[in-house]
Specification:
By secondary structure, this protein is an alpha+beta fold. The chain has helices at 3-9, 14-27, 38-49, 55-61, 64-72, 80-85, 91-96, 98-101, 106-118, 165-186, 198-209, 215-221, 223-231, 240-245, 251-256, 258-261, 266-278, 325-339, 349-362, 377-384, 386-403, 427-447, 468-488, 491-494; strands at 32-36, 74-78, 123-131, 137-146, 157-163, 191-196, 234-238, 283-291, 297-306, 317-323, 367-374, 409-412, 417-423, 455-461. The protein is 51% helix and 20% strand. Strand 3 (123-131) and strand 4 form a beta hairpin.
C-alpha cells in the first residue's frame, strides 16, 4: 500500500478504509500478491547476528538458506489479475500449486531479492521466470515493497508481477539473431574484415573540394595520397578465418602488424579501389595481393561493400577476402607450361615465335641469333635408349639456362634444336655467348658420366631491312655447316676437339 493511498484511507472509518483498500487491490490492472516475509526476516537477522556481511557470497556457500527462506514465505492474498495470469481458478488452487509456479531459475532470482532486503532496502526488484498452472513460461518483472503495517516484522509485502514475456522474448530473439550473425561472421569460410573508411572518405572529399576532377591523374601524380589513405583505414574486427589465412595468433597481433599485411604490390590495387570509390562505386571486387605475417605472398579475391545506412560517411564497410593463391599458382604453372619445354625447362617454340614478333615490332636492335643443335642424339637414342637421349637434352638445357641470362633468352624449338636470342647485341656479343656455352659444355661433360654432350652452333646478326625470320635461317645455315664438319671428324677425335668448329 502506497503512502498516498494510506493518507487517503485515513479519511474513512476503518471498516470503509479496509473495503476500499481491498477493492483497489482486487481490481488493480496488474497482478498483485500480498505475502508475509516475517520468516525471511528471521533468517536474515540470524545471518547478520552470525557476522555475515556479504550475503551474496554467504548464500553461494550455503544454498540451503535460499530454500529455507523461500519455504518460509506465506501467501496471504492475490488479486483477480494474478489468477488470470497464472491460469488459476481460485486462490486456493494457486496456493496449492506454488511449487509449479516458482520452479527452475526462481531460486537464483530469490537469492538476489534476499540480498536487496539484507542491504536495508524497503523492497526489491527482479526479473524472474514463473510458470502458469498449464506449464507456460512467464517472464515477469517483480517489484516488492514492505507495507507500513509490516515494517517491523516484514509481515506485509505487496508484490507486483508484470508479464513482460513478449518483451523478453523479443530480447531473446534479438540476442539469438545477433549470435547467429556473429557465428556467420566468425565461422565464415572466407576472410572477413569490418573496417571504418570514414577518414578515407574525408580525404577524398577534401580533394574534391580543391577542384580536382581527374582523380586518376591526381593519384598518379601524388602517390603519397594513396599511402595516406591506406594508413587511415581503421580495422574494427576480423574473423577467425582471417587469423588463419594471415598466420596471426590473435586479433591484437594482426592489427598491430597491418603494415606487414598491406604493402608493396598492394598499393596499385588500392589506388584502383580509391578511384572506384571516387566514382561512387560502393561495392566492387578485384584480385589483389596481401602478405601473411610470415611474409608469404597471398593472392586474394577482394569484395568491398559499404554497409547499408553508412553510405554517407563510409564508417562501416565489409571486406571479404577469398584465398586464390593455389589458383594463381596453377594459372602460373599452366602459363609456364604454355611457354616452356618441360624436359629442358627452357622456353618453347611458342615463346620463341612470340619473342621474334615482339622484337621485330619493338626492338631493341640489333638482334643476334644463335642456332644450336645437339650432336649425336639419334645415335644415343638408338644405342642407349631414349632415357639416355632425354638425359642429354636435360644437360643441354642446364648449360643454356646457366649461360643465357636476361635480356637474352634460350628456347628449345624442336627435338634437338635450340635457339638463343640476344636483343640489343651484335656479332661480338654473340661470339662471346657461344664461347661461354662451349666452356660450360666442357664443364658439364666433366661432371656427368655416360653420353658425351656436344652442340653444333651457328650465328647471325640482323641486317638492315632484313626480317628476323631470315636472320634465323642464316644462323641455321651456319649451324648445319658446323654440324657437317662435326660428323666429318673421326669419332675418336670429336671428344678432343671443341664443341663447335669455327666457321
Amino acid at each position: 500500500m502506497t503512502n498516498a493511498l494510506a493518507t487517503t484511507l485515513k479519511r474513512y472509518a476503518p471498516e470503509e478504509a479496509d473495503d476500499i483498500a481491498k477493492g483497489v487491490f482486487d481490481l488493480a490492472p496488474v497482478p498483485l500478491w500480498l505475502e508475509d516475509f516475517s520468516g525471511v526476516k528471521r533468517v536474515l537477522d540470524r545471518c547478520r547476528a552470525e557476522g555475515v556481511t556479504d550475503l551474496k557470497r554467504h548464500l553461494m556457500e550455503h544454498p540451503e538458506l535460499v530454500e529455507e527462506t523461500a519455504g518460509s514465505i506465506r501467501l496471504l492474498a492475490v488479486n483477480t489479475k494474478t489468477l488470470e495470469l497464472f491460469e488459476a481458478e481460485s486462490f486456493d488452487t494457486l496456493q496449492a500449486n506454488l511449487s509449479s509456479v516458482f520452479s527452475g531459475d526462481m531460486f537464483q532470482t530469490h537469492a538476489g531479492e534476499l540480498v536487496q532486503l539484507f542491504e536495508g532496502r524497503n523492497g526489491f526488484e527482479s526479473l524472474a521466470i514463473n510458470y502458469t498452472l498449464s506449464g507456460r513460461r512467464l517472464d515477469v518483472q517483480v517489484k516488492a515493497r514492505i507495507l507500513p503495517k509490516g515494517q517491523e516484522d516484514w509481515s506485509r509485502l505487496l508484490i507486483s508481477t508484470e508479464d513482460v514475456t513478449e518483451r523478453e522474448e523479443a530480447v531473446r530473439r534479438l540476442a539469438s539473431s545477433e549470435a547467429f550473425s556473429r557465428g556467420l561472421f566468425e565461422h565464415s569460410p572466407v576472410s572477413l574484415w569490418v573496417e571504418d573508411f570514414s577518414a578515407v572518405k574525408q580525404l577524398i572529399d577534401d580533394v574534391r573540394l580543391r577542384g580536382v576532377t581527374d582523380f586518376r591523374t591526381f593519384v598518379d601524380v601524388h602517390p603519397e595520397f594513396v599511402e595516406r589513405c591506406m594508413s587511415e583505414i581503421r580495422v574494427i574486427d576480423v574473423n577467425q578465418h582471417t587469423l588463419d589465412l594471415f598466420a596471426a595468433p590473435d586479433k591484437a597481433t594482426l592489427l598491430a602488424h597491418l603494415s606487414d599485411v598491406f604493402r608493396d604490390d598492394m598499393t596499385p590495387h588500392f589506388k584502383e579501389q580509391l578511384i572506384e570509390l571516387w566514382e561512387g562505386k560502393l561495392f566492387h571486387s578485384r584480385e589483389v595481393v596481401n602478405y601473411a605475417l610470415g611474409g608469404e605472398l597471398l593472392h586474394v579475391h577482394m569484395q568491398f561493400s559499404v554497409f547499408p545506412g553508412h553510405e554517407r560517411d563510409w564508417s562501416l564497410v565489409q571486406v571479404a577476402l577469398t584465398d586464390i593463391t593455389a589458383r594463381k599458382k596453377a594459372e602460373a604453372y599452366l602459363e609456364y607450361l604454355g611457354k616452356h619445354d618441360i624436359l629442358t625447362k627452357l622456353n618453347n617454340r611458342s615463346f620463341f615465335d612470340d619473342e621474334l614478333n615482339r622484337l621485330e615490332r619493338r626492338g631493341p636492335m640489333p638482334v643476334t641469333i644463335i642456332a644450336a643443335d645437339l650432336n649425336g642424339l639419334k645415335d644415343t637414342n638408338d644405342t642407349l635408349g631414349h632415357a639416355a637421349g632425354d638425359a642429354l637434352l636435360r644437360r643441354a638445357g642446364e648449360v643454356l639456362r646457366e649461360a643465357v641470362q636476361r635480356p637474352a633468352t634460350a628456347a628449345r624449338i624442336g627435338g634437338d634444336e635450340f635457339v638463343v636470342i640476344l636483343p640489343a647485341a651484335g656479332e661480338a656479343e654473340g661470339r662471346s655467348m657461344m664461347t661461354a656455352i662451349e666452356e660450360l659444355v666442357e664443364v658439364n661433360n666433366q661432371f656427368y658420366g655416360g653420353g658425351h654432350l656436344s652442340l653444333s652452333m651457328g650465328l647471325a646478326t640482323l641486317c638492315d631491312g632484313e626480317r628476323l625470320e631470315d636472320t634465323v635461317k642464316r644462323a641455321d645455315a651456319q649451324m648445319y655447316e658446323a654440324k657437317r664438319a662435326y660428323y666429318l671428324e673421326p669419332k675418336h677425335e670429336r671428344r678432343r676437339n671443341r664443341t663447335t668448329p669455327r666457321v
